[in-house]
Amino acid sequence: MGRVGKHGAPDFNSKLTLAEVVIDSGGYDNGGAYWGKSEPLWQAVDDDGEIEMYLRAKTWDAAKPQVLETYPEAQVVRSTEPMGLDDFFDGYVTAALWSSTYWANEKGEPIPHEDESGIDLPIDENYGESDLSDAAKASMREDCESFISTNKENLALYEELGRNAAHAGHDFWLTRNGHGTGFWDRGFDKVGDDLSEAAKLYRSCDLSVEDDGKVYVN
Length: 218
Description:
Number of strands: 8
Low-confidence stretches: none
Mean pLDDT: 90
Radius of gyration: 21 Å
Structural class: alpha+beta
Strand content: 15-25%
């Protein structure tokens, strides 16, 4: 389970970069190692790749003292890498699919809204990311990349407070479209408020399923 860390000398006195490890809904990291579901997982590494330490903590500030217990002379710093686009995009698409509906017949096939025999179904009941049209994927990814690029500092703080890139993508979709939860609803005070205001600069949008069986952004 997990990965085997690399240990350095206790008197190590150089820089250790501490960052959260992204864990998917199944409990796996991006490299396929299984960690299970618990508190957020953090990794501390040195620039030469000689130290690799894993630990659990709710926030970055709670993880740092654990690193210093092992390496009391180390300079523990935050990662300067921007939030991962792929994980952010996956969270964004997931939220978009489950929060959007389409008009369907009893077989789940899309039909015109004028057909009163139809029912409203969640899009994710019958469609997934692979069903997005090329135009939808491009526009959604462009918005995600733009949001990450213009909100790096607040997104880094958001991660330190215990949320990851997939959560951020999820909250971006919900917030920009005025759903009942989002960045503002995580108890993160100014960070949540600032990210909410940034998300609202993007126009609201929704998804639709068209006759070709593809999902589009409106």
